[in-house]
Design a protein that fits this description.
2 domains; 10 strands; 11 helices; 2-enoyl-CoA Hydratase, Chain A, domain 1; Lyase 2-enoyl-coa Hydratase, Chain  A, domain 2; alpha/beta
Length: 274
């Protein structure tokens, strides 16, 4: 992937990073709409990928640096449109953008650590895709979600991938075909969101979520997340064959021996990640 120079009006740091008690907080900082520009997607992809090998990071949170109105407006349509003046009418840049977006979403899914979306505001198109790609999602009661590409002649085909892996097909098609915005309550009913909380408690609750997850064995979380996504794509029989072997290998781990022993002895387990 080619490195793209930041535009003059792009923040020098499009992702603000904070590590606290095992939780890596990544705040998108691309005002006014946190559009998923090349620069923002590259920054998110690289920092999430780096978290995979960082032992200090046990869970990742993706949020907006300026919550309240927009979580993310999806792809940067102005950036895309500007490349229609290219000799190939933008085809190469469009391909780069969509490939990078797919790479970012897969980096989230393949990260051996849980990723939580903290949503306060509108998550639209690829912004909704970003929420759907995270393992967990918590939003405010005023947050909204949509895949409105159909309204501008550009079907949300890549957001569809993450959406259909989170919500029922009929509900996914409703969002994709109508382009209409759904509220937080509907998003939870659809399966897109785990919890809805008042805005004043959002950060506190997500932080508590992250702390609870960070207190678990990092090896166990890695094994579990990988198995979750793999078995979901298998037949029932194959899924049971696969997960049975996963549990056997998990039982052989030092952390499983320690955790079971601590449970039997009624003491706190001491994890080593082995």
């Amino acid at each position: 992937m080619n490195v793209v120079e930041l535009k003059p009006d792009t923040p020098s740091d499009v992702v603000i990073e904070e590590l606290r008690e095992g939780g890596l907080r990544l705040e998108m900082n691309n005002p006014p709409a946190n559009a998923l520009s090349i620069a923002l997607m590259q920054a998110l992809r690289d920092r999430i990928a780096a978290a995979g090998d960082d032992k200090a990071v046990r869970v990742v949170v993706i949020a907006s640096a300026k919550p309240g109105k927009l979580f993310s407006a999806g792809h940067d349509l102005k950036e895309l449109t500007a490349h229609r003046a290219d000799a190939d009418k933008g085809r190469a840049f469009f391909s780069q953008t969509m490939e990078l977006c797919a790479e970012l979403m897969q980096t989230i899914v393949r990260l051996p650590k849980p990723v939580i979306a903290e949503v306060d505001g509108l998550a639209t198109a690829a912004g909704c895709q970003l929420v759907a790609s995270c393992d967990l999602a918590v939003c405010t009661d005023t947050s909204t979600f949509c895949t409105p590409g159909v309204n501008i002649g550009l079907f949300c085909s890549t957001p569809m991938v993450a959406l259909t892996r989170n919500v029922h097909r009929k509900q996914a098609m409703e969002m994709l075909l109508t382009g209409e915005t759904i509220d937080a309550s509907t998003a939870r009913e659809f399966g897109l969101i785990n919890r809805i909380v008042p805005r004043e408690y959002l950060n506190q609750i997500v932080r508590k979520y992250a702390e609870v997850i960070a207190s678990k064995s990092s090896l166990t979380l890695k094994i579990g997340k990988e198995a979750f996504y793999k078995q979901a794509e298998m037949t029932l029989e194959d899924a049971y064959d696969y997960t049975a072997q996963v549990m056997v290998e998990n039982m052989m781990a030092r952390d499983a021996e320690e955790g079971i022993g601590a449970f039997i002895d009624k003491r706190k387990a001491e994890w080593t990640g082995e």
